[in-house]
Structure formats: C-alpha cells, structure tokens
UniProtKB/TrEMBL annotation, chain B:
The pyruvate dehydrogenase complex catalyzes the overall conversion of pyruvate to acetyl-CoA and CO(2). It contains multiple copies of three enzymatic components: pyruvate dehydrogenase (E1), dihydrolipoamide acetyltransferase (E2) and lipoamide dehydrogenase (E3). Residues 18-30 have a biased composition (Low complexity). Pfam families: E1_dh. It is an enzyme of class 1 (oxidoreductase). Its EC number is 1.2.4.1. It comes from the Bacteria. Residues 1-30 are annotated as: Disordered. Heterodimer of an alpha and a beta chain. The gene is pdhA. This is Pyruvate dehydrogenase E1 component subunit alpha. SUPFAM superfamilies: Thiamin diphosphate-binding fold (THDP-binding).
Length: 354, 372
C-alpha cells in the first residue's frame, strides 16, 4: 500500500570518481543508479525498452534490468501516465517517459486530475510518486510539434513539481531527487543541450559536453535537492533568471559582451528557490527573465510578478523578459523565434542603460 | 514528423527484423485457436446464480439495504442544503457493488471506481458515519472533507477512490494491477466505470495495455443505461458493452446487475480467471439508477413509467427479500433489520451534521508531501 516513506535523506554528493558525460548519458546513469538502488523503480514509455529511447536515454537498461522493470508501452500517453499514477498509489516509483513534451497533452487529464490531486483528495492517504521524463524545447528544427516548452502548464497546477536541468551534473542529481520525491514530478529535459551546451550561437560549430566543467558527473548515487537554484556566475550588474537551454544562452551572451551579470539557473520551477532570486535582485537591482516558451502567461510572468512583489524597492528598472513569441514554434524561422543572443543582448543593454 | 525524431532512429523505428524473445512473452497467449473470448460467459450461463445459504443472502440483503437507506438519507441531507455540490446516488445499483465486492479478498485485492462511489465504500463495510461526514464536508470525513462525495479513499480497505473525471480511474486501475503483479502479492484490481465512461479513449488505451501485459484486473462496466441524460442507444455504436474488449482479446461477461446472486456468481468466475494469471476480464453489469444522474438532474430523458417498471419488476433489494422469505426467513426479522439500518443511517447523518468543518489551515495541507 502506498505509504509515505522516509526517504528525505540529506543531500550526499558522492565522493566517487567523476567523468565527463553528455546529458543523455547522465540521465541514463541516474536511471541506472535508481533501478539498482530501489526495486520499486520502473521505467516505461514509447520505445524506451528494446529501442533504448529515441534519444537513447534508456539505452541498455532493459538488457540490464529486464522486461518487467524497463518496458515499452503502446502509443497511449494518457494511458501511460494513468497507469503510472496507479502504480505509484500502490507504492511503486514509476518513471514514465513521454517521448516529446509535445506529446504530453493527451496525458494532461491524468497529470492534472489524478497525479496532482490524489494526495489532496485522499487527505494524504495516497500519493502519486511518479516522475514523468520528457524531452522539451526547440533548437532541433522540430517545428511546432517537436519543439515546445509547455512548463507553465504544469507550474500552474498545484500538486505537481516541475524540474528543468541545464547540465549533465544537475540532470543526474535532480533526476535522482525527482524519483525519490514522494510528489509527482514533471522532469523536462532540454533536448537541444542533450549533447552539448548550446549557447544560442547557432551559426558556430556545436560544442560537445566533453570539456565543460558541469559535465563532470560523479559515479554512483548523489542527489540535488528540488527547490535549490544554482548560481551559475556571480555578478553585480544585473540578475538573469533562466533554466534549461537559456542558461547557456545567458552565459554565452555575458561572456561575449563582458557583462558582469549574476546568472541564476532555477533548476526547479516548482518548488522555486525564491530566496536565491530575492538575494540576487536585491543586490543587483535589475532583473532579466529568460525562457524559450511563449511569452503570455509564461513562467517568466510569474517570475516578474514575484520579483516585483518582493524586490520592488530595490529595482532600478522594470523587469525585462526575453521569451519565445506568442506563435506556434516555427520550422523555417526557428532562429528568429528562439530567444537567442541578439535579443538577450539587447535586453541586457536596455537594463544596463536604465 | 513521425514520433521518432532523429534521422538515425528512422531505420530502427520500423519493425525490427528479429523480435527479441522476451518481447514475444509480453504479448503471449495470442494464438487465436485456443483463445477463449466466450468461455467465461458460457461457463457463467450454465449456472448463473450463486448458491447462497439463507445467511449469506441475508448478509447481501443487509448490505444492499444499508446502501439504499444511506443514499435516501444523503438525498434528504442534500435537499436540506447540508450536502453541497455534486452527489450521485447509487439507488437501484446496490446489487452490483455488493455482489462483486463479496467475491474479492479483503486485504489483498484493490478497488477503484468513478464518482458514484458511496455504495462501493459501504459494500466494503466502511463506517457510514465517516462517509456521510465526507458528503457534508466535515473534518471527520474519510478524506477530511476535502474530497467530497466523488473523491473518497481508504488505505485500510485498499479502496483507491472515488474519481470525478469520467473514465480517468481506469488507467489507474491498470497501474494498481501492474503493482499487484510486480509485487507478486496475488491481488487483483477491480476497476469500475460506467456506460458513459466506456466511450472515453483512455479506457481503450488501458484495455490494450492490460491485455498486452496480462494484468490482474477485472474491468467492470456498470451499465445503468444513461450517461447523465444520454441513453446508451444515443451515445454508443456498440451497446453490448461486454463485447468491447474483444478487439483486445479480453473475454467479456454479460451479467444481470439487478440480481445480487447472479452478480456474485459472475464475479467469482471473473476473479478466478484473473487471479490465475490469464489477464483481464471485462464484465458488463446491466443495472439501473432510480434517481437522476446527480441531485440536480430532473431526469426528463426517461419516463416515470420506465423507472417504475424497473422498481416494480427488477428491484435488487425486493428481489432478495422475496427470496429470503421463500427460504424461510421471518419477515419480522427483516423489518427489525430495516429498523436497525435506519437507526444506523440516522446516527451517521447526525454525526455528519454535528461534526466541525475543517480548519482553514487545511486548505494548504496535503497539496504536496513537502511544503512549497
């Protein structure tokens, strides 16, 4: 029977040797680690077993853990998530994969009405500790049905947690924390940075993760608590709030322009590390919010509102947002849509001049 | 674009030349010749009634009567404004939950259902007081008043709710069944839904997965003839719901849901089949709700004569009563039983009226396991 388990262990960073991994390998490593540690962990999804996942995140895991724990599902997103909720209510820890975030919509009924609500309406008797993994975001010419960033749909739902890693190191630690978490977690993997830290300069050669310091991933178990942001670089000129791919875009622009920005990688949107945001904006007095998703009612709107509410008297300029446009994600005009270095740079200039 | 994104995956995406052996086992039992889509129904029809002793039938009768009296009282409390919002009464359908759940093993099997859930909880023997207090939204309710009529749960009885979205509980049921199988605990899941829910897409996603993975689950369609105000004939291309699993190789059973002994017998056959590892069974229980879909439904989509006809000729409680008398049970004893149940229900109503409402601080509890 689904009972709460006391798995709120403190964060333990493994002292095991680290090696450079891509985000795909880091995710695979996290899944491998958790399958090994906890017999209640189960992976399910379209093409994840025999095929190893379209992005290879589950490669080799079915061979290692068998068909009962790592298995293919029919193309039935609502059914997949619904079955996972039932498994979770019974005490398992399912990690369903939705092949693209764009495919998650048929499963919204289950995520919103069941996963997010089960605990509340049973007054804490049952939980739905599932982790829905899903590649999201653009930059791969996927067009409108393979590029979306629907995170705000989920942050809007009380009872769900929403996580977006931006490095291999974080992807592993956050995914482990998500799987161990007793609440339902939507874990969005920015697929543009699966293989390298894409900084938005699409006309330059792509960089691999290999030499990036945050691609150093310790072996074995470690977790990064949900709700703890990462200060990517300290600075005093302005605060940049970002997550996923946009963290690297912010870094790239600040590096190119030599801007002394404080870049905060939120890592988890719900729960949000509002303290880190407040501390930084109070220090810099200026705030830029970035996301790939469409602008209206995006998570940036929530961030801007929070910063305004909490840091109003420290602000020296209105909070700026650089986001995707309020259009479907285009195929041919991808780089016009993508909030890349030019638009981010302009917003930074505007804030610095203010 | 197809579902596989990277071009490199394009080739492999098509059917692999060689199917791995284990993959084949996942969909085992598919050889057409020995597949018995109809055998359960045939076995059931040969002898469709449970051979109950007078004592057993009396127990069924008592449970059904408790549900009816409870629901009548709930209707009254609703009329008095003590129950707000949505309230779906089980009156007329009592034999279904009572007959089916008697065939389950307590502490081993799990149950999940839709929003018309009062009867299922009562059939389990859950205290009517805490159910009624949930209807009135009180702290003492089984979900502390936060679930309400449609959303009630009990870990103790492995009762997984109580779900207000039509059909959404069906995939959850398959998840529970998966967990039974994964744990090897010998349990089966009984997943109830209605004739209306039977037209939801996710139900068929679930049929496919449950059959593919041979999950221990009994799908129960409570066909009460109306999806809210839309009759089965006006909403369903195939009105014989027990046939709807055929495309997924799920054997179906058609059962008279107004006869508790028939329900009990059919349940036994279905549960045994599922427990033996043969995968799911789909049961259609033909029943009838006497009241409207919810309290606000004037039920103008059917005639008074239609409802009266069912009450007069097929009422499950009257039917069981006549049979008990035939078996020699004293009519006075039945009257005393009714009195006792009425008192129990009145006590539940008093409790539900007098219990305090949840504190405002409950608003923010149980949203997430951790605070946020």
């Amino acid at each position: 029977m689904a009972r709460l388990t006391a798995d709120d262990e403190p964060v333990t960073l493994s002292e095991a040797p680290a090696r450079s991994l891509t985000m795909i390998e880091a995710i695979n490593d996290a899944l491998d680690t958790m399958l090994e540690r906890d017999p209640d962990v189960i992976l399910m999804g379209e093409d994840i077993g025999y095929f190893g996942g379209v992005f290879r995140c589950t490669a080799g895991l079915q061979e290692k853990y068998g068909h009962t724990r790592v298995f293919d599902t029919p193309i039935s997103e609502c059914g997949i998530i619904g079955v996972a909720v039932g498994m979770g209510a019974y005490g398992l820890r399912p990690v369903p994969e939705i092949q693209f975030a764009d495919y998650i919509y048929p499963g919204l009924d289950q995520l919103i009405s069941e996963a997010a609500r089960l605990r509340y309406r049973s007054a804490g008797e049952f939980i739905a500790p599932l982790t829905v993994r899903s590649p999201f975001g653009g930059g791969i010419f996927g067009g409108q049905t393979h590029s979306q960033s629907p995170e705000a749909l989920f942050t809007h739902v009380a009872g769900l947690k929403t996580v977006v890693p931006s490095t291999p190191h974080d992807a592993k630690g956050l995914l482990i924390a998500a799987i161990e978490d007793n609440d339902p977690v939507v874990f969005f993997e920015p697929k543009r940075i699966y293989n390298g830290p894409f900084d938005g300069y699409y006309d330059r050669p792509t960089r691999p993760w290999k030499d990036h310091p945050d691609a150093r991933v310790p072996e074995g178990y470690y977790s990064i608590p949900l709700g703890k942001a990462r200060i990517v670089r300290e600075g005093s000129a302005l605060t940049v709030l970002a997550y996923g791919t946009m963290v690297h875009v912010a870094e790239g622009v600040c590096r190119e322009k030599g801007v002394d920005a404080e870049i905060i990688d939120l890592r988890t949107l719900v729960p949000l590390d509002i303290e880190a945001v407040e501390n930084s904006v109070e220090k810099t007095g200026k705030c830029l919010v970035l996301h790939e998703a469409t602008r209206t009612s995006g998570f940036g709107a929530e961030l801007a509102a929070l910063v305004q509410e909490r840091c109003f008297y420290h602000l020296e300029a209105p909070v700026e947002r650089v986001t995707g446009f309020d259009t479907p994600y285009p195929h041919s005009l991808e780089w016009a849509y993508f909030p890349g270095p030019i638009r981010v740079g302009e917003a930074i200039d505007k804030l610095l001049e203010a | 674009m197809a579902r596989a994104a990277s071009s490199s995956s394009g080739k492999t995406k098509r059917a692999p030349a060689k199917k791995p052996a284990a993959q084949a086992t996942a969909s085992a039992g598919k050889s057409g010749d020995n597949f018995a889509l109809h055998s359960l129904q045939e076995a059931f029809q040969q002898d469709p009634r449970f051979d109950a002793t007078a004592e057993e039938l009396l127990t069924f009768y008592e449970r059904m009567l408790l549900i009816r009296r409870f629901e009548e009282k709930a209707g009254q409390l609703y009329g008095l404004g003590l129950i707000g919002g949505f309230c779906h009464l089980y009156i007329g359908q009592e034999a279904v939950a009572v007959g089916l759940q008697d065939a389950l093993q307590g502490g081993k099997d799990s149950v999940i259902t839709g929003y018309r859930d009062h009867g299922h909880m009562l059939a389990y023997g859950i205290d009517p007081k805490i159910i009624m207090a949930e209807l009135t939204g009180r702290q003492a309710g089984i979900s502390h008043g936060k679930g309400g009529s449609m959303h009630m749960f009990s870990t103790e009885h492995a009762f997984y709710g109580g779900h207000g979205i039509v059909g959404a509980q069906v995939p959850l049921g398959a998840g529970l069944a998966f967990a039974h199988k994964y744990r090897g605990d010998g349990g089966v899941c009984m997943a109830y839904f209605g004739d209306g829910a039977a037209n939801q897409g996710q139900v068929y996603e679930t049929f496919n997965m449950a059959s593919l993975w041979k999950l221990p689950i009994v799908f129960v369609i409570e066909n009460n003839q109306y999806a809210m105000g839309t009759s089965v004939k006006r909403s369903s291309a195939e009105t014989e719901f027990y046939r709807r699993g055929t495309a997924f190789r799920i054997p179906g059973m058609k059962v008279n849901g107004m006869d508790v002994l028939e329900v009990r017998k059919a349940a036994e056959i279905a549960v045994a089949h599922v427990r033996d590892g043969n995968g799911p069974v789909l049961m259609e229980l033909n029943t009838y709700r006497y009241r409207g879909h919810s309290m606000s439904d004037p039920a103008k989509y059917r005639t008074r004569e239609e409802v009266q006809g069912v009450r007069d000729h097929s009422d499950p409680i009257e039917g069981a009563k006549a049979e008990l008398i035939k078996l020699g049970v004293d009519e006075d004893k039945l009257k005393d039983l009714d009195k006792r149940i009425r008192a129990q229900v009145a006590e539940a109503a008093d409790f539900a009226e007098s219990s305090p409402e949840p504190a405002p601080s409950e608003l923010y509890t149980d949203v997430l396991v951790e605070t946020y």
